Amino acid sequence: MMRTRFFHLGFGALLLGAGLFCLGDRESILAVALPVLAHELGHLLALWILGMPVRGFRLELRGFCIEYGGSSGAVGHVLAAAAGPLAGLAYALAAARLSSRLGSDWLRLSAGVSLLLTLFNLLPALPLDGGTILLHLSMAILGDRRGRLLTEILGLMVGAALLGGGFYLMVRGQGAALALAAVWLLLAQEEGQGLVKRREII
């Protein structure tokens, strides 16, 4: 029987990491890395409290994924998914408070990044945490098939709306960040939709 690796590093993640390293300075990279770390630690803490063992980690182009097992019903899966954005929000509030006390532009930047990542992650589209929350709630209420279908449709609608907004901002000369995020979100819809057999992913 073939065993899966506990940690998997995808080629797409390597390319993305190399690009960020080349384009950004150390302070900017750290301002992004700390909110991401706080977010993932929130997931891990919730999984530990809920008694759902971590089966592995995957760092891919779609992001950092935690595979976990155990059975705690829809409520447990929702709490595990919501813990990441809650931790990110807590980090944003703490960093913003410290930045005002210390007058630190770096902390203010990191707080803004954390808040932005938190809001983005709460969008109702997989593989984001908001999509995972929607998936489990809708499956519990509507049944597995209808719940999955609703989540897939909303995910595509959210991605399309972000893409339209991103192109509008590009035309107005306000950057391509939103359009790139929309393209990533639409491409990430294809596989698994946040769930795989025997293992959950957040």
Task: Give a written overview of the molecule.
The model is unreliable at 191-198 (pLDDT under 50). Strand 2 (54-60) and strand 3 (63-68) form a beta hairpin. The relative contact order is 0.12. Helices cover 68% and strands 10% of the residues. The longest helix is centred in the middle third of the chain and has 30 residues, at 73-102. It is globular. The protein has helices spanning 11-23, 26-50, 73-102, 105-121, 129-142, 144-171, 177-187; strands spanning 7-9, 54-60, 63-68, 195-196, 199-201. Helix 2 runs antiparallel to helix 3. Strands 1-2-3-5-4 form a five-stranded mixed beta sheet.
Q: What's the tally of helices?
A: 7
**What does the largest sheet look like?**
5 strands, mixed
Radius of gyration: 17 Å
Structural class: alpha+beta
Strand residue content:
5-15%
> What series of H and E elements makes up the topology?
EHHEEHHHHHEE
Distance between the termini: 25 Å
Spans of at least 5 consecutive residues with low confidence: 191-198
Q: Determine the fraction of residues in helical runs and give it as a percent range.
A: 55-70%
> What spatial order of strands do you see in the largest sheet?
1-2-3-5-4
- What spatial form do the alpha-carbon principal axes imply? globular
